[in-house]
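Slide 14.
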Amino acid sequence: MKRDFLSVRDFTREEIIESFDIAIDMKKDRMKYSEALKGQTLALIFEKPSLRTRTSFDVGIQQLGGYSLYLSPNEISLGKRESVHDVAKNLERMVQGIMIRTFAHQIVEDMAKYANIPIINGLTDLLHPCQAMADFLTIYEKKGKLDNSLKVVYVGDGNNVAHSLMYAGARLGVNVTISTPRGFEPNLIVWQNAVADGAKTGAKIEVIHDPMEAVKNADAIYTDVWASMGQESETDKRKQIFKPYQVNANLMNAAKADTLFMHCLPAHRGDEVTDEVIDSPNSVVFDEAENRLHAQKAVMYKLMK
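Slide 15: predicted structure.
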């Protein structure tokens, strides 16, 4: 039976940990898995551009012995030039998996519904599960554990990255606090789902508006751009609203001395984070970026092997 990865909630805690162990093994010995997906092709559908998603999936499938097929917006134009149903039914005859990075989450849901091959969510406006996998893999490597003795604090817009961090933390039993201005809180249904999952694993999922209060006892402080793709017209307005939520030395000093600084990148230095923080010894942003490759290879391995 085919499986998809549209949300972190598609994997159990045990499956996520297993994926991390596979990713760490792949990281240690790339050649060990060099024929794991030999002869398989992954279609890469991009409605939104990305440096890390494009590179990590393209390189990742090749390191597993497979091939990638890049499909740009001009070649498909989902739902306009051709329906999601027809794209799915065409591709399932020619490739063995599809990664899609798009806008509406319903598009990946529909793709998974219609295609009889695995679908991987490379990003939607609602969720960014591959990023969360890389993030918690990084925490696992740096802290040596994933349980409710850990606290991850996300400071900024309650966006798709915040949503997937909540889902991953709740699944893994890691406490996640979201600190955001009023009116920019995470999606209510996502928050309710995360709270329900966290109740089963002992993870506390909460929203605290005061960032200084939120980061107390944090093991990791995470931020993202204040205006995501498609919100460019709101940039100036958001800069004023989110200015108190900048991750700077003052905010980092309110947490533990060994608190990790995390960011999904690209970063707008001087806005959501200062140079002093992102370039500090506590920053693991490039470890996260590298771990996109390893975490996604593990996901492809589990779904396509």
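Speaker note: The chain has two domains: 8-128+290-304, 131-288.
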